[in-house]
Amino acid sequence: MILTTLIITNLLWIIYSITEGVREGFYWNYENKSKRVCDFNINPVFNLQRIIVLTLMGGFLVHSLGLFSLPCMILMFSFFHNGTYYYTRNKLQSGVYPKGWFDESKSFPPFHTSLYTYKKRTISLILGLATQIFVYIFLLS
């Protein structure tokens, strides 16, 4: 039963991460094209939504695997979210992110951008998944 919970929760989290990337890709594409000026920073709203979903979905993994599963889910999020975001933005406005899924941000502050290169996103994904698998195999068996 724990393995089923682990697989289903991770699949749902991946689907959520992908849909967030698509949604934000559309949002920022149209926000950047809009002639209307808006000083409201939407990022805290996006982050609050992610925290709520993480708490709800992560609750299943916390119950099954323990509290460390939340950081594992956070590590996995960036790979799917950012990859889908860059791909979506490039499809909507060719040339914005020419590498598509493999691109990296050009708008975040420099210290933040270096955390989200394709290589580092991939390492985060592998680390998050490997940690969950390790705990399942070696600590729960």
List strands and helices in order, with pairings.
Blueprint lengths: L1 H32 L9 H23 L3 H24 L17 H4 L4 H22 L2
Helix pairs in contact: 1-2, 1-3, 2-3, 3-5
Major β-sheet annotation: none
Shape: elongated
| Topology, number of strands | 0
* Global mean pLDDT: 87
* C-alpha end-to-end distance: 12 Å
Give the low-confidence spans: none
Number of domains: 1
Order of helices and strands: HHHHH
Share of residues in strands: under 5%
User: What value does the Rg take, in angstroms?
Assistant: 17 Å
Helix segment count? 5
The secondary-structure class comes to mainly alpha
Helix content: over 70%
What does this structure look like?
This protein has 141 residues and is mainly α. The chain has one domain. The protein is 74% helix and 0% strand. The chain is built from five helices and no strands. It has helices at 2-33, 43-65, 69-92, 110-113, 118-139. The two termini are 12 Å apart. The model has no long low-confidence stretch (mean pLDDT 87).
The gist of it:
With 141 residues, the chain is mainly alpha-helical. The chain has helices spanning 2-33, 43-65, 69-92, 110-113, 118-139.
Features:
single chain; 141 residues; mainly alpha; 5 helices; elongated
